[in-house]
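User: quick one
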Amino acid sequence: MSVIPDRLRLQRELDLQADLLYGEAEQLGAALARGQTKNAQISGMESVANSSTRVTDLLDYIKRQTAKAKRGKEWRATVNGETVGEALLRVLTQDVPRRAAAATKAAGVDIPQPSADWQELQLHLARVFVRQVAIHCRSASEGER
Amino acid sequence: MTAHERQTLQLLGDTEMYDLAERFVARHGLLAEGRASLGGKSQLHALAQRSRREGVEELIRFARRQAQRAQAADHSGGGNADWWTALGSELDRFRQHTAVAALLSEHEFERKSEQAKYRDRLAQVLVVFFVQHLVAECLLRRALNEH
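Assistant: Done. Structure below.
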């Protein structure tokens, strides 16, 4: 089988898996808005996600922002008993790899773990998820004004 | 070793450094806060800054000095001295290339990069990643532990 159909199939499966993160992104984006997170911080998260080649840079950014936030505010606003920061870290370190694995399985593509290609898949899903969170946060912030 | 292989190795190494940093905090805990105990955020920031501009050897010396000073101050029940000592030992694994050799071997790069110079460079890159992740993890856990 040629490489191009493999990639297209994988892209389609990744898009489907990214859609499954939508509900969580909506909830976390709304919580960030409730916590009055500044737009600059949300843009910062998007910028790190889009410019870095490593998911860990994004994880460190979220950890640092959560550490700086006051209790109950911004990245420490709570959602279902955990802070938004912790919830974001959980999604990025647990759900994203699980969804990436599901996408490769459904597409019938074998990508070894760990490998640079595997990292690339996770980074792709992480970027989509962060974009969704940012959109929901801005939309919820607008709604509150 | 090609630039692409080097980049791949750094990428894979970074993920391992992230896990290593989380394991380090899970095992050794956090620095105790306090003016005289040489713990706290300012020490972590100093560590992060040093990791970006200094070599592995100098970082190890810094950790050992911190351990001695914490021991002398002894306001943390010895906890901070233990923390800095453990960090010194962890950093020493980079100096000895233990961490690097394991990574090279695991990803079958060892035959292509037997030069000590390359291992030194990789160790330096990995140590920066490790410290960056360690500091972020410590800051997060410290904030979440606050009452």
